[in-house]
């Protein structure tokens, strides 16, 4: 296990947890660049997502920033779809093609938030909507197939729809990532595709647990989110494009 990889996972967990994300896209990007086996990549990324956002869900709920009715409206259809995505067998070439597309789109969404979104004002009269449940189902399916938790897609969609306050959206994304990552892992286990090498994953899990707990307690102002998102978008975009060339 590379010490450098543990340090990078710690930093990613710390930064992502403060925004309600698990960091799955960046974990996958780093493991892909390190030429980790693709089965091990998926399982490890989902497991890291779970241990990071579990603490976030707790803190957001305690602080009153996790409206459970909306959380279930968005997540209910996504949970079985994440299971199906994790259950489906994928060839290595197909997996890396899907992951390359998923990471590239994620990077572009992050760039949109950085450069196009000037201000954010929630719609105070917005209620749960069926379309967000359908969107959540598609994101859940992608989550199960690739190991990306899905928050990196869900957050900009909810913000574009002015679905809730910024802090509540972070809480909703934490919940969404948690339930879909668990469901995706169960899908892999049901197909006997769950690949966990504890010599590899153990140090990484300890790193993201520590980073996630610290990040969940830090404010976005302290972490300068625009700089963080910009650097993360570049990493994800590089890894996504790199996979296409591979």
From TrEMBL:
Q: Where is the signal peptide?
A: none
One GO cellular component, as annotated = plasma membrane
Location comes to: Cell membrane; Membrane
The transmembrane residues are 43-61, 96-115, 135-157, 169-186, 198-215, 227-245
List each coiled-coil range.
none
**Lineage: superkingdom:** Bacteria
Q: Does the keyword Transmembrane helix apply?
A: yes
Membrane topology per record: Multi-pass membrane protein
Write down the InterPro entries for this protein, in alphabetical order: TM_pro_TauE-like, TSUP/Inactive_protease-like
Q: Which UniProt keywords apply?
A: Cell membrane, Membrane, Transmembrane, Transmembrane helix
Q: Which family does the record assign?
A: Belongs to the 4-toluene sulfonate uptake permease (TSUP) (TC 2.A.102) family.
Recorded hits in PANTHER family, A to Z, give: MEMBRANE TRANSPORTER PROTEIN MJ0441-RELATED, MEMBRANE TRANSPORTER PROTEIN-RELATED
Protein name listed in UniProt: Probable membrane transporter protein
- This chain's source organism reads Chitinophaga oryziterrae
């Amino acid at each position: 296990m590379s010490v450098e990889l543990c340090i990078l996972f710690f930093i990613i967990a710390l930064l992502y947890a403060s925004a309600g994300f698990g960091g799955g896209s960046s974990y996958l990007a780093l493991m892909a660049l390190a030429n980790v086996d693709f089965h091990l990549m998926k399982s490890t990324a989902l497991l890291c997502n779970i241990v990071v956002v579990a603490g976030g869900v707790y803190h957001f709920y305690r602080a009153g920033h996790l409206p459970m009715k909306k959380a279930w409206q968005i997540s209910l259809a996504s949970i079985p779809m994440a299971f199906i995505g994790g259950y489906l067998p994928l060839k290595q070439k197909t997996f890396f093609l899907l992951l390359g597309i998923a990471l590239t789109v994620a990077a572009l969404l992050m760039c949109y938030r950085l450069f196009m979104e000037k201000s954010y004002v929630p719609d105070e009269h917005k209620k749960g909507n069926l379309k967000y449940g359908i969107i959540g189902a598609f994101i859940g399916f992608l989550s199960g197939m690739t190991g990306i938790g899905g928050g990196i897609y869900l957050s900009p969609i909810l913000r574009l729809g002015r679905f809730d306050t910024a802090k509540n959206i972070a809480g909703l994304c934490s919940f969404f990532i948690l339930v879909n990552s668990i469901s995706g892992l169960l899908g892999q286990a049901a197909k006997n595709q769950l690949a966990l090498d504890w010599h590899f994953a153990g140090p990484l899990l300890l790193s993201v647990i520590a980073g996630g707990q610290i990040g969940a307690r830090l404010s976005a102002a302290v972490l300068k989110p625009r700089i963080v998102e910009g650097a993360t978008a570049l990493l994800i975009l590089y890894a996504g494009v790199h996979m296409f060339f591979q």
